[in-house]
Amino acid sequence: MTDSKPLLSELREPAEVLALLTPEESRQLSDLLRQARLTQQRSLDRAIDDALTVLPRLMRIPARKILFGK
Question: Which of 2, 3, 8, 39 has the smallest number of Cβ neighbours within 10 A?
């Protein structure tokens, strides 16, 4: 069973406004939000990798684990 208003299910607020969207508009905005979050995460990961390049190669993995738990 698919959710007819996925954006309302995902965000929950402002419910009054999100409830006014058609199911298609809700799906489109939900897809755009998911894509934007993915793009933001990739950009952040790239920025972290770029920042760690100032460290010697052998120190990058331990530094990443200390700073970010990855």
Answer: 2
